[in-house]
User: Fold this.
Amino acid sequence: MVTQHEMDEAEIRGQIGRIVEGLRAKDLEGLKRVYATDIVSFDIEPPLQHVGIEAKLKNWAKVFTLFESVNYEIRDLTLTVGDGVAFGHAFGRLSGTLEGGPVTSGMWVRATFGFRKIGGAWWITHDQVSVPLDVESGKGMTGLEP
Assistant:
């Protein structure tokens, strides 16, 4: 018999899968069904925080204008699931063909997700993307791989 915990974890993994599908399809409406309306996102680009679904989708829309085709992959997703909240972390990489034809393999980033169960469904209410920092130079280390 499948437990509620197993069903919740499967639903959350499905939400992460929908991010991958939405990015590959350049589907903002699909992505909108993953994030809570009041998401707080600490994304890779300024400002320090993006608040609300429109701000989050604006970041993805910018990606869609830069890329002719988008690929996104998640590696090593680990989840901790409670009754009404959950969190997870993984490595993510955005790659693809840029407008005009150059192909980029992208860079691996660290991604952290916070989830809340709202109205019986799991929504991403917080995410954070980062790269390691070389303290001496103050520069991000974008060539690392998991």
